[in-house]
Amino acid sequence: MERERATVEVMIRRFCRDQHGGGSELCPRCRELLDYARYRLARCPFQEGKTTCGKCPVHCYKPGMRQRIQEVMRHVGPRMMLTNPLLSFRHFLDGLRRKPRRR
């Protein structure tokens, strides 16, 4: 779960920097998305046994936020191998897990 949180944060920060010209601080819209993603991860019913959110059978993001996080992942995902290869590879491995079962 900690790695999932770190991955989401890296992706949102990179997206904000690329799209909104932010430096080390996130714009309010990206800050809201990061806070929401952290909130949802903390309440994930699968916790440590989870796969990546994109392959999860339960879509816990509300539709507007889900669309925003998908936009972030589409933009940053291909670039992650160049900037964060280890984090990217581990995220790929997490995605290979079977669909989780609820606790």
What does this 3D model show about the protein?
The protein has 103 residues and is mainly α. The protein has helices at 2-20, 28-42, 63-83, 85-95.
* Helical fraction: 55-70%
**N- to C-terminal distance:** 15 Å
Beta strand count: 0
Q: What can be said about the biggest beta sheet?
A: none
Helix/strand class: mainly alpha
What is the H/E string? HHHH
> Radius of gyration, Cα only, in angstroms?
13 Å
The overall pLDDT, averaged over residues, is: 83
pLDDT under 50 segments (min length 5)?
none
Number of helices: 4
| Outline type | globular
Give the DSSP E fraction (strand runs of 2 or more residues): under 5%
Into how many domains do the coordinates divide? 1
Task: Give the key terms.
single chain; 103 residues; mainly alpha
Secondary structure elements and their pairing?
Blueprint: H1 2-20, H2 28-42, H3 63-83, H4 85-95
Short account of what is shown:
It contains 4 helices and no strands. By secondary structure, the protein is an all-alpha fold.
